[in-house]
Amino acid sequence: MLRPLAAIALALLCALSLVPAQAQDHSPAEVAAIKDAVFNGPGLPVMGNAQGDAVLVEFSDYNCGFCRKSAPQVMALLQSDPGLRLVVHEIPIFGEGSRFAAEAALAAQAQGKYAEFHRALMAMRGKAEKPSVLRVAREVGLDVARLQRDMQSPEITRRIERSLALADEIGLVGTPSFIAGDRAIFGYLSKDDLAELVAEARAAK
What are the backbone dihedrals phi and psi of residue 178, each rounded to the nearest 5 degrees, phi first? Predict the structure, then answer.
């Protein structure tokens, strides 16, 4: 069952019902800044076509069952839509294992293996925690010693905190949450559901 997210004040997510209190709390400039952070925040992992004509944003956690269930659907859409850019916000909300996995995933960017590692973590069996995350890292060919050093970077912490703060700012109710254009949906989405969301965003341009 698809459930709409609380809308960002004014422009962002304007296709959904706005919360009056939120609308009063944000100026147009602030809304523009929030929207830019959602779609173009610094250091955000990108998959698919980096110069694509449509953008799908996902807020996810590696210990979220519905994120794992949605992952193959997202990957199938990326494969079928060469003009799609996928932006991922790591928001570890399911404990220390989720935090470790998010830090590792972002650190994998330095080795050019974020996408491969992300897919492997979403496909893994069992809970994402330090031993299992490092095992998957080795399986995808990451330099694990370097990965663990890179995970200690203050920038990794800042990226995660920015995404968590943004999720709170725009009223996300959980993971996975998908945003395209001015619409946001919470929960599992099939490839067809995702394609419809992206098509609406393209048509609204």
Answer: -115, 140
